[in-house]
Task: inverse folding
């Protein structure tokens, strides 16, 4: 992965060169609509106040648990015994982006969502709290982390989440086999190039023209930037949006030419 200094330099370049997040000068009607109705939606949804206290609890929790880490994140925290608070600090998506996921799901109304990388279930909970209650399959490699996520889902009263525990090598394809179409995918489970591309190509088999794939940490490392570039070049991909910390992928044939946007957020 890149060092904090390298990521900061990349973020500065992104911030200076990205298109404005207010929609001014945006010639794509679809992306303009995304900016106005999703990116800049300031509504405070009720579920925000229910989920965030759980994030705060996790960030304070000093309990040590044993973690099976099958992804590139194991390079950051090599010990398999870790404090819950340390895991939460490194793995939980920020409040800003978690709220954006709610707005994406509320606006585009995917029926079936698959998430690779449950962690403690905070992001999953944001996805699940969308107004139309989509069905969510979420995959987590670590049993102890997954058990905490399951407890959080119970506390929040979610009935629309199916948690699958185990190595993605064993659970990913078998989960996909149960799904007719993946309307939205959030991929945050393994930051290695080959694994992430494998997820993309397998998810693509279950995509439709309305599907949205979201990849986390697309500028986290040289490998992840290579992944993002290769995804953009795929013939099925017609539009992408780079928000630096996440990348959105669209497949609609309504876009006659490939379009790639980097937008300040």
Result:
């Amino acid at each position: 992965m890149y060092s904090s200094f390298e990521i900061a330099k990349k973020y500065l370049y992104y911030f200076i060169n990205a298109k404005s997040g207010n929609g001014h000068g945006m010639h794509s009607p679809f992306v303009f609509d995304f900016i106005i109705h999703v990116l800049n939606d300031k509504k405070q949804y009720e579920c925000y106040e229910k989920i965030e206290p759980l994030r705060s609890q996790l960030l304070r929790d000093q309990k040590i648990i044993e973690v099976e880490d099958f992804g590139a994140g194991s390079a950051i925290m090599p010990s398999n015994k870790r404090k819950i608070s340390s895991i939460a600090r490194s793995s939980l998506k920020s409040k800003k982006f978690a709220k954006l996921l709610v707005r994406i799901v509320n606006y585009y109304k995917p029926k079936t969502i698959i998430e690779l990388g449950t962690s403690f279930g905070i992001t999953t909970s944001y996805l699940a709290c969308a107004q139309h209650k989509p069905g969510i399959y979420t995959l987590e490699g670590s049993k102890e982390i997954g058990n905490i996520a399951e407890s959080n889902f119970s506390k929040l009263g979610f009935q629309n989440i199916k948690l699958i525990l185990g190595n993605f090598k064993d659970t990913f394809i078998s989960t996909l086999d149960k799904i007719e179409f993946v309307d939205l995918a959030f991929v945050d489970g393994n930051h290695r190039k080959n694994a992430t591309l494998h997820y993309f190509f397998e998810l693509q088999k279950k995509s439709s023209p309305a599907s949205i794939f979201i990849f986390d940490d697309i500028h986290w490392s040289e490998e992840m930037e290579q992944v993002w570039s290769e995804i953009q070049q795929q013939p099925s991909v017609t539009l992408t949006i780079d928000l630096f910390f996440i990348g959105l992928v669209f497949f609609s044939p309504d876009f006659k030419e490939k379009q790639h946007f980097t937008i300040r957020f």
Observations:
- The first helix runs from residue 4 to 17.
- The two ends are 22 Å apart (CA to CA).
